[in-house]
Design a protein that fits this description.
The structure is a homodimer.
Chain A lengths: L1 E7 L17 E2 L2 E2 H11 L5 E6 L4 H11 L6 E5 L4 H15 L6 E6 L7 H14 L1 E7 L3 E4 L15 E11 H9 L3 H6 L3 H7 L5 E4 L10 H12 L4 H4 L1
Parallel strand pairs in A: 1-4, 1-6, 4-5, 7-10
Antiparallel strand pairs in A: 2-3, 6-9, 7-9
Helix pairs in contact in A: 3-5
């Protein structure tokens, strides 16, 4: 089976004055997370959409399901873990209850990236089947700079090799289980990115082409931009 | 003296169907480059704004000066070089004609980042005086990923040490001359970023805090966003 995993474990500490996590803020009268879920619901290859939610907001998410997805069997809600990878693990546990086949694929996606396209989903599924694990990226537009001390630059990597990671990140469920169970507690504390975890354990994480419009809503500024983008969805610039 | 150097050497190959370089596209009936120049003209500490333009567009830029800055002595136009650093060098040569003091400071800025703030300019001047060279950056919001082969990930650096470089990049003119003249032709071909050049030659490039709204207009998508942002400039979200 092919599962979508919507990652909504966050509580949105960078969104300023809003009192609910950013994935629940409305755009066009619909929560951001619902815009994400919609894309996976309509995609023919996705069997189930499993949404991993912060336990404090689990009931709130059930209300969203009741309000926007009444009778939609494709949507499943599970409580997430204390960090990103443990939320993915909660979703993985749910896929095992529902299928447990060694061929199962999981397409994980941020609950706050509502501009994902059906094409990205298709290409993620293809790459996960072919290579085992893949990450959606765009070439970095800005020069990337490192500072190990937050005071001055310690390195500037070659720009042509540098990408900005987006999501989806997709993989064979079986592979995730192998890799996740081999991580020590100390490793899990440091490695918050699933693809980094795969990479550390020796897997080749293949690249899938993302899109500049596949933005992550992190700050109030992004929320504003996202609202404007959603209003202009008919515009070619935003639907490529 | 304190100089601003507006870098307009580019011809905008990523802007799709537009027939003029992106810095000359209009926002609110005013070229993007003029929005940039305005900020430096009004800043009290800046003595002169030297704009380095691609030689093919030098006359076009003179027309902009005539149309929007008639009688503004603070604005100087010079033909730029074949790449970013040689355009900076053309501007540096101009500063030497106008001052040549060992204390001269140059604040360089992309002609396509119209949302620079007066605060960023002030902080750049302070840091360049204090440390010799500085770069304006924001903490990377996306996870940064490397691929040396464009197929799969070869490294994912620690996110907390990773920044997106913006501009201004500011420095003592004297220091730039030392560093630039010590670069070999091969080095100059590879190193397109001024701060990387300083870093390679052993200088500590200090960090100055940028802003997410200080975007670079690279793609048609950015141009659209920039137009909307400019219309909303009264809004707190865009003027922080």
């Amino acid at each position: 089976m092919i599962f979508a995993g919507v990652l909504a474990g966050g509580i949105g500490s960078r969104m300023g004055n809003y009192t609910i996590p950013k994935q629940f803020l409305l755009i066009n009268d619909r929560p951001i997370i619902a815009h994400v879920i919609d894309k996976f619901i309509v995609h023919n290859y996705i069997d189930y959409v499993i949404t991993g939610v912060n336990p404090d907001w689990y009931r709130y998410m059930l209300d969203i399901k009741e309000k926007y997805y009444k009778g939609v069997d494709k949507l499943v809600i599970v409580p997430g873990g204390s960090d990103r990878n443990s939320t993915i693990n909660s979703i993985v546990e749910q896929t095992k209850k529902m299928s447990g086949s060694p061929d199962d694929i999981l397409v994980t996606h941020d609950a706050v990236r509502p501009f994902i396209t059906l094409k990205m989903i298709s290409e993620n599924i293809d790459a996960a089947i072919k290579y085992g694990v893949c990450d959606t990226v765009i070439p970095a537009t800005d020069t990337i700079v490192y500072s190990e001390n937050k005071e001055y630059i310690t390195d500037i990597p070659l720009r042509s090799n540098t990408y900005q990671g987006q999501t989806p990140q997709s993989f064979k469920v079986k592979l995730f289980e192998e890799v996740y169970s081999s991580m020590t507690d100390d490793e899990l504390k440091i490695v918050t990115d699933a693809c980094k975890m795969f990479m550390l354990k020796g897997h080749k994480v293949h690249l899938v082409e993302g899109n500049v419009s596949n933005i992550k809503i992190t700050y109030p500024y992004d929320y504003k931009i996202a609202q404007i983008m959603m209003e202009n969805l008919q515009d070619d610039m935003f639907t490529v």
